[in-house]
Amino acid sequence: MTKLRVLLVDDEPLARERLRSLLRTEPAVEIVGECGSGTEAIAVIRSTALDLVFLDMQMPGCDGLEVLAELPLENRPAIVFATAHEEFALDAFKVQALDYLLKPFDRERLQTALARAQAHARTRVAAGPSQKVESGPTNPPAPKSERLTVKTDGRLVFLKSEEIVWVEAADNYAVLHLVTGRLMLRETMAALEARLGAASFVRVNRSAIVHRDQIKELQPALHGDYVVLLREGTKLPLSRNLRGKLDEFAGGKSD
Fold first, then answer.
1. Cα–Cα distance between 227 and 230 in angstroms, integer?
2. Dist. CA 51–CA 78, nearest whole Å
3. Is the dihedral of CA 65, 67, 69, 75 positive or negative?
4. Do residues 48 and 76 lie in contact, with contact meaning Cβ atoms separated by under 8 Å?
5. Which of 79, 153, 227, 251 is deepest in the core (most CB within 10 A)?
6. Shortest CA distance to 202 belongs to which of 158, 154, 239?
7. Strand 181-185's sheet: what is its strand order?
8. Can you tell me the distance from the alpha carbon of 68 to that of 120, in angstroms, rounded to the nearest whole number?
9. Could you tell me if 178 and 165 are in contact, meaning their C-beta atoms sit under 8 angstroms apart?
10. Model confidence pLDDT, tens digit, residues 88-125
11. Does an H or E element contain 69, and which?
12. Which domains does the chain have, with CATH numbers?
């Protein structure tokens, strides 16, 4: 088994010590260094062969996102943020971090991140060595992931858009109806609608947002109204002020 060459970056010595203690019992990990600042981390990552970096988000002088801004994507190791700040999760995945660990995390959660790092390392080996910036053109940026990050019951849950069937307003909460169940979160429908994006989701009434691919039929109702029938059987009224966009809800173009 090829070991993952790992760097620990955190300005708090106790946080590095705890992570070091957890990793010490992982046979697939080799800790090759530690850094107490983002500036130091940039220099070490540039000069050292690494597979994985555990990176704190907020550090004096240079935070985690600023560290990644100094490192070309095609030449950097896998990045797992290990931080107490949940509000930066979306920013982390926008810069293509491999995972996001919220402190305090347990061994099981850490092992999930390590498994992802091992899979990432195998993929890089199969693809062959990446070109250095100095030697030629870089690889094109990876396409933006259509993934929604939500917090529920103290957890951060990462959902692919196709896992979400529809979203229902519930007082001060929103209920995500998933292919495999339901999740309730404290977030407004307007905020969710903006995060989900118009490419895959559409608002059918004040209280419901649906995945376009989940729309099976638009059925006529009384007084010229329509009902949106989803593939799993749910029926949702179509708001009257949206009736002029029937083609859009069906996946086509509105006139």
1. 10
2. 6
3. negative
4. no
5. 79
6. 239
7. 181-185, 173-178, 164-170, 208-211, 201-205
8. 17
9. yes
10. 887 887 788 888 888 888 999 899 889 889 888 887 76
11. helix 64-69
12. 4-133 (3.40.50.2300), 147-249 (2.40.50.1020)
Residues 183 and 157: beta-carbon distance below 8 Å: yes
* Each residue's pLDDT tens digit, 185-208: 888 888 888 888 877 888 888 899
Residue 71's nearest CA partner among 162, 148, 133 is 133
**What token pair was written down for 153?**
């019951």
pTM across the whole model: 0.54
Report the candidate in 243, 215, 247, 239 with the shortest Cα–Cα distance to residue 229: 215
Structure tokens at 197: 């994006």
Token match 């969710």: residue? 192
d(CA 227, CA 235): 6
Which contacts of 14-19 are long-range, i.e. CB under 8 A and separated by 24 or more positions?
15/56, 15/82, 15/103, 19/54, 19/82, 19/110
Distances 105 to 54, 85, 158, 232 between C-alpha atoms, Å: 13, 12, 16, 36
Q: How far apart are CA 207 and CA 115, in angstroms?
A: 39
What count of other Cβ atoms lies within 10 Å of the Cβ of residue 119?
12
88-to-58, 82, 100, 149, 191 alpha-carbon distances in Å: 10, 11, 9, 11, 16
Q: Is the dihedral of CA 3, 5, 11, 13 positive or negative?
A: positive
Judged by DSSP in three states, 252 sits in: coil
Nearest-angstrom CA–CA distance, 11 and 41: 11
Is residue 168 helix, strand or coil?
Answer: strand
